[in-house]
Amino acid sequence: MKKRAEIIASGLVQGVGFRYFVSRNAQNLGLHGYVKNLFSGEVLTVVEGEVALIEELFQKIKVGPSHASVNGSKIIWDEFKNEFKTFEVRF
Question: Measuring CA to CA, which of 10, 19, 28, 45 is 20 to 30 A from 71?
């Protein structure tokens, strides 16, 4: 079953390659959407695809790349909208 999710990661998640880590993992899982930094210091990922694959990405986001320190993460589920054709890093 396909769904859409918004994932917010907080902690030391900016300036450590976090967006590229998310993008690489999402692409490897065949997911579509985007990742971007928020002014709050958090990172937002909006992703669409199979629920199990999104959950797998969420587990990776909760750990993050080696230089990151994720101290909080949450996922908000929504209906699949088929909005994206690729996964990209937004600025």
Answer: 28
Per-residue model confidence (pLDDT) at position 16: 98
What's the pTM value of the predicted model, to 2 decimals? Answer: 0.97
* Contact (CB, 8 A) for 35 and 68: no
Query: Does the CA dihedral 22-70-7-42 come out positive or negative?
Result: negative
**Domain residue limits, the chain:** 2-89
Please identify every residue annotated as catalytic. 19, 37
How far apart are alpha carbons 50 and 29 in whole angstroms? 9
In order of 44, 54, 59, 80, 86, the CA distances from 91 in angstroms are: 11, 22, 24, 24, 16
Query: What is the DSSP track for 22-51?
Result: HHHHHHHHT-EEEEEE-TTS-EEEEEEEEH
| pLDDT tens profile 72-86 | 999 999 999 999 999
Fold of 2-89: Alpha-Beta Plaits (3.30.70)
